[in-house]
Design brief:
single chain, 82 residues, alpha+beta, 3 helices, globular
Amino acid sequence: IIKTILSIENIMHGAYELNVPYRNNCFQVFGFDILIDSNLKPWVLEVNLSPSINTDSPLDAKIKGSLIADLFTLVISLKNKD
């Protein structure tokens, strides 16, 4: 996952420079689809630039709800550092 993000760093930085006038007002959530094989080895299948936040099941709602809560907690903690 780290190598994936590093591989697009220049592209994302360039896009932010062109389209986001204030860097503190923008963040991006990536969706990683990962397969875990029978040896418990993870394989990245794809990365979604705009992952779906729709929920189709109670488990889906719990996982994505926690993701959004953690995201807001992170944003607020970063804002309070300023």
